[in-house]
Amino acid sequence: MNMQAHRTLPWYSLAFAVFAADQAAKTTVDVATPLGWSYPVTPFFNLVHVLNPGAAFSFLAGAGGWQRWFFLAIAIAASAWLIWMLRQTRRRSESLAFSLILGGALGNAFDRALRGQVIDYLDFHLTGWHWPAFNAADIAITLGAACLVIASFIASRQPQAQEKA
């Protein structure tokens, strides 16, 4: 195994694990529950089966169908860039972030390509107000983005730290 493959394999493996877990959950929801299904788990959390043809917070959900290809193209371009970024030597925190974002982007891109829209199944609510439903891919993307923000703050405070993957 060459040095680059040795360095990138864990990060690509993490991205694949995120993708696989996301797709397993979405497939389970899709196969085991009818569209529109909702199951209260706690007073503030439901498992649901909803479709989102848009982006985060259902942005452009009612745009008529073109948004499927637009968001799919963005996800593919972002994934290609993330794969390239993971090939570079960088801090572990950055590689972790890129891996999480890559796995989530591929999970939602796969849904758009296969189903035309994304399956969401996590619904948090409080006093009748519901946060937009989301999925494991969305969680991974959000965690990855948070890791990037934290890593940038740490790097700006300690520029001499060269913790590389």
TrEMBL record:
<keyword id="KW-0064">Aspartyl protease</keyword>
<keyword id="KW-0812">Transmembrane</keyword>
<dbReference type="Pfam" id="PF01252">
    <property type="entry name" value="Peptidase_A8"/>
</dbReference>
<feature type="transmembrane region" description="Helical">
    <location>
        <begin position="96"/>
        <end position="114"/>
    </location>
</feature>
<dbReference type="GO" id="GO:0004190">
    <property type="term" value="F:aspartic-type endopeptidase activity"/>
</dbReference>
<keyword id="KW-0472">Membrane</keyword>
<keyword id="KW-0732">Signal</keyword>
<feature type="signal peptide">
    <location>
        <begin position="1"/>
        <end position="20"/>
    </location>
</feature>
<keyword id="KW-1003">Cell membrane</keyword>
<comment type="similarity">
    <text>Belongs to the peptidase A8 family.</text>
</comment>
<feature type="transmembrane region" description="Helical">
    <location>
        <begin position="134"/>
        <end position="155"/>
    </location>
</feature>
<comment type="function">
    <text>This protein specifically catalyzes the removal of signal peptides from prolipoproteins.</text>
</comment>
<feature type="active site">
    <location>
        <position position="138"/>
    </location>
</feature>
<comment type="pathway">
    <text>Protein modification; lipoprotein biosynthesis (signal peptide cleavage).</text>
</comment>
<protein>
    <recommendedName>
        <fullName>Lipoprotein signal peptidase</fullName>
        <ecNumber>3.4.23.36</ecNumber>
    </recommendedName>
</protein>
<keyword id="KW-0645">Protease</keyword>
<keyword id="KW-1133">Transmembrane helix</keyword>
<keyword id="KW-0378">Hydrolase</keyword>
<feature type="transmembrane region" description="Helical">
    <location>
        <begin position="66"/>
        <end position="84"/>
    </location>
</feature>
<dbReference type="InterPro" id="IPR001872">
    <property type="entry name" value="Peptidase_A8"/>
</dbReference>
<feature type="active site">
    <location>
        <position position="120"/>
    </location>
</feature>
